[in-house]
Design goal:
Layout (H helix, E strand, L loop, with lengths): L1 H37 L6 E16 L7 E16 L11 E5 L11 E5 L20 E7 L8 E3 L2 E17 L2
Parallel strand pairs: 5-6
Antiparallel strand pairs: 1-2, 2-7, 3-5, 4-7
Length: 174
């Protein structure tokens, strides 16, 4: 009889252990699901402002003293990242990566191209293949923000990119 009671106790302990492990795994899975749905509550930095400035311009395709223009529409996107006031620890920005840029619907006219700021002193943006954003745009953390060098201040700043709808219309005036 005593042997039988020991076996019963072992079986009960085994099921209690399995129940506790299953309960712990369930709680961990629920916490992971909650984090996946809601995300981080108290991030060190936050996207505080986003400004889109739309303009249109004509780009002279043959040089000065001609009237041969390519009409383009520009949407300059400025994203301001600031330190979260509710976050008490000290963190620095290593880099900010903008990728997975998807254009849901192509325009009826023109071609959408994404540009990064140019490194030229004369213009904020230049229309060249060197400045096109193919896959991703990376702003490195630095002491201060510098759009030309793709640097973002390590405690927050502004990043910029341009969505350009080029080849809307070509105008030639004699």
């Amino acid at each position: 009889m005593e042997d039988f009671n020991k076996k019963i106790k072992k079986i009960i302990y085994f099921f209690i252990a399995v129940f506790i492990i299953a309960l712990i795994v369930t709680i961990i899975c629920l916490l992971m699901l909650k984090y996946e749905v809601e995300g981080e509550d108290n991030m060190p930095f936050e996207l505080s402002q986003m400004v889109v400035v739309s303009t249109a311009e004509g780009i002279d395709t043959e040089g000065e003293n001609t009237w041969n223009f390519n009409i383009v529409q520009n949407n300059d996107v400025y994203i301001h990242i600031s330190k979260n006031k509710n976050y008490k620890e000290t963190e620095i920005i290593k880099n900010v990566i903008i990728d997975n840029m998807v254009i849901d619907e192509a325009p009826e006219k023109g071609r959408i191209v994404v540009y990064r700021p140019s490194d030229s002193r004369d213009a904020t943006y230049e229309y060249g293949e060197d400045y096109e954003v193919k896959e991703s745009l990376i702003y490195e953390g630095a002491e201060e923000t510098n759009l030309k060098e793709l640097n973002l201040a390590n405690q927050g700043g502004v990043i910029a990119l341009r969505y350009c709808n080029s080849e809307l219309r070509k105008i030639f005036i004699r």
